[in-house]
Design brief:
single chain; 570 residues; alpha+beta; 6-stranded mixed beta sheet; 18 strands; globular
């Protein structure tokens, strides 16, 4: 169905563009992954771009939800959104840029985040203006291309940077409205993309165009659809190798030239960083000396850092010296990527079965990993998107996967990820665990040698037989099932509902545990967060020994898991 066109670039147009970009990247993801040969042929550029835009979409939707705007009929798009009807253009593009920044994945995703930030810097400078027209969009595209180049330590032609510059150049050549500017930018980007094999030898040898540039053209096509109501036709690009790659496994690629000779850096390191501008300038210099593919994007105290290095620890330590790094992701480049030669091992065989689990803290991630699970870390207030879950399922590299979301609010997200993985030929069973302690119980009875269905039934039964609770601190005054709580009160939640409100962590935890054990139990699992003193666990263990003679207790350190304490009773 054709999209109703918009004449102006306003908040609703931003929302539409983000949504169309996400859908377009979803359709193109596998093709873009398959042609990914530079800077590393790790086959994930399309996925990384999708996840980056998915984060931007979530941020824009949150802005609209905060304004409690009922989406009005789009009509013909003749009139811009009135400032009183919802978020301003600055609100929407600011959210889009911030969402992309915090969710940026990989080299191309990080550059895309900076392109969106560059646009936002121009459009937010217009204050509370409800919309902009063709000239404002042209200026935004120009600044986006320039800021992306500045973010890359050593810009290379024949990449997404070249495509972005061509889009801005083409847009500068038109004096029309937003639709004409978007169409010109798209056509300029498409022509530049087709020329990338002639600019970068590794692309020419592989017979493909630049994957990141392909992703940007896809995003610009969505911009055209936003203003015209129709998506441009399919790209006319060299696809002989691409079609083969999409149908089968990505072919072995020749390595791009690096300063490392035969082999390039072994790790990709990405993290968000809270730091001042001066500290980031020093960080750039240090990371540039440590590795390559350095991209640092952001500003106003928040940055996204991406680099390829041999010493991942040194890259993280450099971030610690500059400020506060978090959401740290370290990926080891596998055999068969661009940093290997023709002597690499063949792709490893898929295992028969694996468990993939979402966990709330580093301590639990280590515990699950020791038990053989593939883990996905979920920071407090930062639930993983479905695309991240799909990536974790792929990373498990198994024919059969048991998925443990460990959070009631992730059930629908996990179901969507499971469905996507099934379309890729992976057999996935979703066990609706509502807490990490239920996941621990399920993992304890997991036996890969059993038939898949029998294993899933056993794990589901163990999780269902485990009551779960948590002790946390209220962030604000609110109504609960146990009465009104004030900010700073200690809350005890049993099976997701507030059951106890108090002032002392140990007392609340003891009350919660007594209520749970009143219905019986054989094993108590305690998972302490970083902010919970060890004395809490010691007192609870002593209480169980004294009052519940037949009950055993195990204690784990969960790390930064949000809750002070997680409790499971089996």
């Amino acid at each position: 169905m054709a999209q109703v066109p918009q004449r102006f670039f306003d908040a609703l147009a931003v929302r539409t563009w983000c949504g169309l970009s996400l859908r377009a990247l979803g359709r193109a993801r596998e093709e873009i992954d398959a042609i990914n040969v530079y800077p590393v042929a790790d086959g994930d550029t399309g996925t990384n771009l999708y996840l980056t835009v998915e984060s931007a979409v979530a941020a824009v939707e949150a802005v609209f939800a905060a304004h409690e705007v009922d989406e009005r009929p789009r009509g013909t798009g003749e009139a811009p959104l009135d400032a009183d009807d919802g978020p301003s253009l600055a609100d929407a593009v600011g959210a889009m840029a911030h969402g992309a920044l915090i969710g940026a994945r990989g080299n191309s995703g990080t550059i895309l985040a900076q392109l969106l930030r560059g646009m936002a810097q121009v459009l937010t400078a217009r204050g509370d203006s409800a919309h902009t027209e063709g000239p404002g969009l042209r200026l935004a595209l120009r600044h986006a291309a320039a800021s992306a180049r500045q973010a890359v330590a050593h810009p290379v032609e024949g990449t997404v940077l070249t495509v972005a510059s061509a889009a801005a150049d083409a847009a500068d050549g038109t004096e029309g409205d937003c639709a004409e500017v978007a169409r010109a930018a798209y056509e300029g980007a498409r022509a530049a993309l087709a020329a990338t094999p002639g600019q970068l030898p590794v692309l020419e040898r592989a017979g493909v165009v630049d994957a990141g540039g392909h992703g940007l053209v896809t995003v610009l096509a969505a911009l055209v659809e936003t203003f015209t109501g129709r998506a441009p036709g399919p790209l006319a690009l060299p696809h002989a190798r691409v079609e083969h790659a999409v149908r089968e496994e990505p072919p072995a690629r020749e390595a791009p030239p690096t300063d490392e000779g035969e082999h390039g850096p072994a790790f990709e390191v990405i993290y968000l960083l809270e730091a001042e501008d001066a500290a980031v300038a020093r960080l750039r210099q240090r990371l540039d000396a440590l590795g390559d593919s350095l991209v640092v994007v952001g500003g106003d105290g928040l940055w996204n850092v991406h680099v390829h290095v041999d010493d991942a620890g040194a890259a993280v330590e450099a971030g610690v010296e500059a400020g506060r790094p978090y959401r740290i992701r370290i990926t080891h480049f596998a055999h068969g990527d661009a940093h290997t030669t023709g002597t690499e091992r063949p792709p490893r065989e898929r295992t028969q079965r694996a468990v993939v689990a979402v966990v709330p803290g580093e301590g639990l991630a280590a515990l699950y990993a020791e038990a053989g699970a593939t883990t996905l870390l979920a920071r407090p207030g930062e639930p993983p998107a479905s695309g991240e879950l799909v990536q974790a399922v792929r990373r498990a590299h198994a024919r059969e996967v048991v998925l443990l979301p460990n959070d009631a609010e992730l059930r629908h997200t996990a179901a969507a990820a499971a469905e996507q993985a099934r379309t890729e030929g992976i057999r996935v069973a979703l066990i609706p665990t509502r807490s990490a302690v239920q996941g621990i119980a399920a993992l304890a009875v997991h036996e890969p040698e059993r038939r898949f269905d029998e294993d899933v039934v056993a794990m589901t039964s163990a999780a269902g037989a485990t009551r779960h609770a948590e002790v946390t601190v209220a962030e604000r005054q609110s109504w609960t099932t146990a009465g009104i709580c004030q900010a700073g009160d200690v809350l005890g939640l049993i099976d997701g509902d507030v059951a106890v409100i108090g002032a002392d962590v140990s007392q609340v935890a003891a009350t919660v545990l007594d209520r749970m054990l009143s219905a019986g139990g054989e094993l108590v699992t305690l998972v302490l967060g970083d902010e919970a003193p060890q004395a809490v666990a010691d007192r609870l263990e002593a209480r169980v020994r004294a009052a519940y003679l037949a009950v055993d207790t195990v204690v784990y350190r969960g790390g930064r898991q949000g809750a002070l304490l997680l409790v499971g009773v089996e």
